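[job 4471] stage=fold_predict status=RUNNING
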Amino acid sequence: MKRITVLIALALGLLSPGLAPAAHAQAAGAAAPAAAQAPSSLLDAIMARGTLRVGLTGDYKPFSIVDAAAPAGMQGLDVDMADSLAKSLGVKLQIVPTTWKSLMPDLLAGKFDIAMGGITVTTLRARTALFSTPVMASGKTALARCADVRKYQTLAQIDRPGVRVVVNPGGTNEAFDRAHLTKAKIVMVKTNPETFQALLDHKADVMITDGVETLLQHKLHPSLCPIHPDHPFNHSELAYMLPRDVIWQQYVDTWLRIDTLDGSRAALLKKWLD
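[job 4471] inference complete, writing structure tokens
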């Protein structure tokens, strides 16, 4: 519980007013005709369409998980955050399913207006997309069967012949594994939930993922234990990913700041992480 509370504090701290970007000021004396000719923002398109399209993978608790019984077809922290963003715009919410492998191509193809769901900020992604203000501090750490935790405390202990590290394709978990593991066997499965089942079924020994996910999976599967999630192998941040539209990015950051100041985000973090 203490570790979960720390993660909530980190998430809220990243959205403190001092870190939020200043509102974009219109240039003084700008001619009205020039403003009228400026290209419209995605924000204008969303308002005109009356629908906010949010890309979610639906396989990463607590952010999004497929649930046929849920109104949007998914549930999770970022499903609720997406609903909050849509309400701030006065439009309907449309969840667009995607995968970690197709996340960036789908965003660039205009299949959705914003991607949510535990997305790690990376320089590779920043070459073609924008990020919101970070919403949570993170870092990669290991998850293993509780009986084996002592065996996998370091990357050197994990990266040994005979150790099977399970991962699903396309995300930063796979990128981390391939960058740091040369001796261990990387076991590929199709979806994120299958990685945990592989550990439970003894078809793999370790999974490396964000600390917040290891803590939640321990709650769901007590026989799986996080390995020092408060001291991860690296440090990163999670954020929402957007097309290259600064006006839309600024709106999202303004909404995040307000959601943090009025306590709405804190309530959702408590709901999904406690």
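[job 4471] summary: The chain has a mean pLDDT of 89.
[job 4471] exit 0
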